[in-house]
Amino acid sequence: MFTQAELDLEKGLEMRKRVLSGILASEETYLSHLEALLLPMKPLKAAATTSQPVLTVQQIETIFFKVPELYEIHKEFYDSLLPRVQQWSHHQRVGDLFQKQASQLGVYRAFVDNYELAVETAEKCCQANTQFSEISEVILKVRSTKECKDLTAKYSLETLLYKPVDRVTRSTLVLHDLLKHTPSSHPDYPLLQDALRISQNFLSSINEESTPRRQSMTVKKGENRQLLKDSFMVELVEGARKLRHVFLFTDLLLCAKLKKQIGGLTSCSRNSPLGFKMTFCILTQQRANKGSKVMERLKKKLSEQESLLLLNSPNMPLRVHNRNGKSYVFLISSDYERAEWKEVIREQQKKCNLTSMELQMLTNSCLKLQTVHQLPLTVNKDEDESTGLYGFLNVIVHSASGLKQSLNLYCTLEVDSFSIFVNKAKTRVYRYTTEPKWNEEFEIELEGSQTLRLLCYEKSYNKAKMNKEDGESTDRIMGKGQIALDPQMLQGKDWQRTVIPMNGIEVKISMKFTSREFSLKRMPPRKPMGVFGVNISTVTKRERSKVPYIVRQCLEEIERRGMEEVGIYRVSGVATDIQALKTAFDTNNKDVSVMMSEMDVNAIAGTLKLYFRELPEPLFTDELYPNFAGGIALSDSVAKESCMLNLLLSLPEPNLVTFLFLLDHLKRIAEKESVNKMSLHNLATVFGPTLLRPAEKDSKIPTNPTQPITMGDSWSLEVMSQVQVLLYFLQLETIPTPDSKRQSILFSTEV
Questions:
Q1: How far apart are CA 582 and CA 609, in angstroms?
Q2: Measuring CA to CA, which residue among 685, 663, 668 is closest to residue 730?
Q3: Secondary structure (3-state) at 391
Q4: Which residues form the DH domain (predicted)?
Q5: Residues 389 and 375 sit within 8 Å (Cβ to Cβ)
Q6: Start-to-end CA span in the chain (Å)
Q7: Distance between CA atoms of 197 and 176, rounded to whole angstroms?
Q8: In terms of DSSP H, where are the helices of 497-589?
Q9: Do residues 413 and 423 make contact, with C-beta atoms less than 8 angstroms apart?
């Protein structure tokens, strides 16, 4: 029997090989770029000694300065590394190769110092010399064959010249990855440490010389106006998502572009939706330097993932217009917040004109207001701020009272997940009454959640009233309210009843919370029959199928009538319906297909998620989970692709076939994003933890109390990593599989 420490060491050494395989693939690509760059150099040099030179010798030496030397360095490195990886053992040494390569960074120093002059010379020669411009097009064809990109000749040449500059940063990141998966006792460890130190020092010296000095403006606070509301939104700009900080004053709507650099504010004008003026400025947020390097590294990683979530999650359009008819579209994740913005904008519509200097002064003033929000990232939270609740919240929506007339009513529930509010549940429509009694229970997963919001809508059945601009229904919000999720109030096992008041309406609900420690543990197989809580290989073997019957049935029903359901997979189904379907599948009820056809599609989606969540081990397996988490963190894209695909194809066949079956379905769901509001990123957020979350004991993030990161942050890091793994595979156009598996997986009629 191997100890856990020995197993962890073995996994780390296996990842070391995967990283090196990725480095080889990356080196091969880089060498092809250098070859493409060198391709025209020999004929140019030969022509330079004739009576009709294309370029002078000096121009050639300037443009291609040190490129042949770089090619020789990397060719020698590749030729030396390849046989060592091919003849691999865990005792194989490669550190000397990386140390030697790092010692030759002086060639890169010379190349980088000459880089701007090389690009400038190439641009001038392209413009002045038709022959050289045509030669540059040869470079373009070499690249477009390999990368399928349509680039101009000028941009192609500049891009190829930039490859060595970019390589310095990539090499440093790759060294960091390799060192991370090399045991400290391995003979390579000190050599790789030395190589990394040399590379980092080299990179720092370049950055210090190239970083421009920035100064921030200090101006007085704007007068005679009051800040009413501010929040972060996503603006759609020619189809691209851009994160904005939007401020609403009593006479002005101000929109700020965010930049990551430390510094002040720079004005960037743009006019003017709404009756009042809307202006765009560049807003830079400063971060405090807190804590140890370990904490900073983990916090940075978490912030990067949270920023992606912040940018990709919102899907509800808030459209604003200027008096000339031009419109701007912002995306918000919460209908509650969208309603608030619409209400306050309607109240404050006025005309306003400010000079650019006045706008700059106002933007600077915003930073000094303590009421202004910071980006909702973990790194910006105070140390004593609550991390929220992790686990499951069961909510029963009982009834509503206080309505003045009979209406068709339903409620939705929103909770914050990583500081972003999203719709998590929806009751059925209670027809034409002043006292709806839903009595429906929902199970909502919480990820650092602190607030529960409830919205009450009047259902509109008139399709002619659909919003023509946004393609959304015009269901009217009758009331909205919220309640803090108090850990003290919810710590008991009993249901907590409460009333949420909203615009004269009162909605009665009950809540019960189960923390992550008890709700998210995967249990070992506890029964020979049934499908829930039973190993996937056992189920497929019993059914003589490649994909479990429950997965096929749920996906078939969802594809039949749930592809355009708003929030499919994100919105919870009624808990009693999900439990009824679970029992039917477990007992092999022959009427299960009839039951599904009569149930809300969200209950079917919830049943499928519950099935994957209750597997004894995740679909990606406990054994491979740490490797997937390590692979997605690799810095080099080629190394990452090599690692992730090899890991995927290492899954047991029932797991792999089921995952590919589900993956195709999720991609088809995302194709309907304009209607169902479920992008690939949103689907990855929902399914990532469900498919990858390991047993608690297999958690990759350390939970040692001596680590300078909270338990909540460690959970957040794991969840973000799980989301990124699934998102990576969702974004791949195709997943190449060996011929032996392709026939078994993709062309099987037994699925």
A1: 11
A2: 663
A3: strand
A4: 15-209
A5: no
A6: 37
A7: 10
A8: 516-519, 536-543, 549-561, 575-586
A9: yes
Q: Is 601 helix (H, G, I), strand (E, B) or coil?
A: helix
Spatial distance between the Cα atoms of 374 and 381, rounded to a whole number of angstroms: 9
- Amino acid, single-letter form, for residue 519: S
Q: What angle do helix axes 680-692 and 653-670 make, rounded to 10 degrees?
A: 160
d(Cα 189, Cα 174) in Å, to the nearest integer?
Answer: 14
Continuous H helices in 313-462: 335-348, 356-368
Mapped to the 3 state alphabet, what secondary structure does 618-677 carry?
A: CCCCCCCHHHHHHHHCCCCHHHHHHHHHHHHCCCCHHHHHHHHHHHHHHHHHHCCHHHHC
State the amino acid at position 317 in one-letter form: P
Distance, CA of 508 to CA of 401 (rounded, Å): 9
Cβ distance 679 to 309 under 8 Å? no
**Is 307 a residue whose pLDDT tops 50?**
yes
pTM (2 decimals)?
0.71
Taking phi over 0 as left and psi of -120 to 50 as alpha, with beta for the rest, 455 belongs to beta
Asked whether 425 and 463 are in contact (CB, 8 A), the reply is: no
Q: 630 - beta bridge partners? A: none
pLDDT band at 130 (very low <50, low <70, confident <90, very high): confident
pLDDT in tens, 528-568: 688 999 999 999 999 999 999 999 999 999 999 999 999 99
Q: What Cα–Cα distance (Å) separates residue 91 from each residue in 82, 94, 533?
A: 16, 10, 40
Q: DSSP state, 475?
A: P
Q: Name the phi and psi angles at 399, rounded to 5.
A: -160, 170
- Helices 153-180 and 130-147 cross at an angle (nearest 10°) of 40
Least confident of 442-451, 548-557, 568-577: 442-451
In one letter, which amino acid is 100? Answer: K
| pLDDT at position 425 over 50 | yes
- What single-letter DSSP state applies at residue 465? G
Tokens of 607: 């049943």
CB 587 within 8 A of CB 554: no
CA of 357: how far to CAs of 39, 72, 193, 279, 362, in Å?
Answer: 52, 55, 51, 12, 9
93 pLDDT more than 60: yes
Q: Shortest CA distance to 618 belongs to which of 675, 696, 682, 713?
A: 696
Query: What 3-state DSSP class applies to 156?
Result: helix
Q: What is the pLDDT of residue 430?
A: 94
The token pair at 282 is 């560049």
User: Cα(339)–Cα(474) distance, rounded to whole angstroms?
Assistant: 12
Alpha-carbon separation of residue 271 from 277, 326, 477 (angstroms):
6, 10, 31
Which tokens is 476 given? 């009217």
Say which residue, 465 or 283, is predicted with more confidence: 465
Burial 711-726 (b: 16+ CB within 10 A, else e): ebbbbbbbbbbbbbbb
- Give the burial class of 585: count Cβ atoms within 10 A of its Cβ; 0-12 exposed, 13-18 middle, 19 or more buried: buried
Beta bridge partners of 612: none
Write out pLDDT tens, residues 348-380: 765 455 555 455 555 555 554 544 566 666 656
CA dist 388 to 134, 304, 487, 488, Å? 61, 20, 8, 12
Q: Kindly write down the DSSP assignment for every residue of 3-59, as one continuous string.
A: -HHHHHHHHHHHHHHHHHHHHHHHHHHHHHHHHHHHTTHHHHHHHHTSSS-SS-HHH
Shortest CA distance to 536 belongs to which of 589, 611, 628? Answer: 611
- Name the DSSP class of 574: P
Q: State the amino acid at position 531 in one-letter form.
A: V
* CA-based nearest residue to 226, from 194, 260, 254, 193: 254
Higher pLDDT, 473 or 255: 255
